[in-house]
């Protein structure tokens, strides 16, 4: 038996994507769509990131206050699934990179079989820069959910036992973090045009005065010269304010790739007659880490990213005093 309500288990177990939010040292929330997994051994909700691009894991190691927003219905058998927000405590696992990599290969091949379908194993074995993983284990602290995807009503609420012992992360790697591997776009409006036209899942995330992360799906987003405007249901509390992030994302029903755009900025809001009226001012757009299109275009994009990330693999493994993990397809 899991500690959370039974009605949420399918959402946690079957969802193909979740919006994971962590916080920078300056207090800026950053959201990114990831693939979620339930860990029955630890009763945690887990996501992973590549060893060669560990920034989100390092943010969570520095500040374990994170959130998971389940608002994408693809992968679920429920006709009208709930929107679920998990506010949790993150523990970073990177003291056994080979076990991490083996686990990721096993679980991702079960959950996302189309992503590697038809690819010879001898080719996949040459991609340790992608398959080598850091796991982020998230212990749920509070859960809010809106049944039937109806956010016009106040959410239901669950909270963990106040005596819950929260796990610590593995020790951080040695030395300084490697520099960013992708340059950030300078023209956010061009990226916003793409996001508005192609990416129908939109999420807003902000940090409350108590230091908790609120993350909610957004509809009917309107673009303007300074950013985006939209409305939220009145039951969203507290009112959005301060540093925030907006992520636009999408993926096919058969998960062969994904595309996203993430905008950082600040949000302000005021109560309207029936809704919360919000304005999001964009400060910058993050570099694009998408694998869009058909298999051919995705393969080209994947190889291009691999040329930049492969040299980082040895360095990140050495920072953890471990050998480069092998890509093994275990039965």
Describe this structure in words.
- 40% of the residues are buried.
- The model has no long low-confidence stretch (mean pLDDT 92).
- The two termini are 27 Å apart.
- The protein is of the alpha+beta class and 331 residues long.
- The chain has helices at residues 9-14, 55-62, 97-111, 121-124, 128-131, 188-198, 295-319, and strands spanning 18-23, 29-34, 37-39, 44-50, 65-70, 83-93, 133-146, 156-159, 201-207, 213-217, 222-223, 227-233, 242-250, 259-271, 275-285.
- A hairpin with a 3-residue loop joins strand 14 and strand 15.
- The protein has one domain (6-319): Roll (Pnp Oxidase, Chain A), CATH 2.30.110.10.
- Helices cover 22% and strands 34% of the residues.
- The protein has seven helices and 15 strands.
- Strands 1, 2, 3, 4, 5, 6, 7 and 8 form an eight-stranded antiparallel sheet that branches.
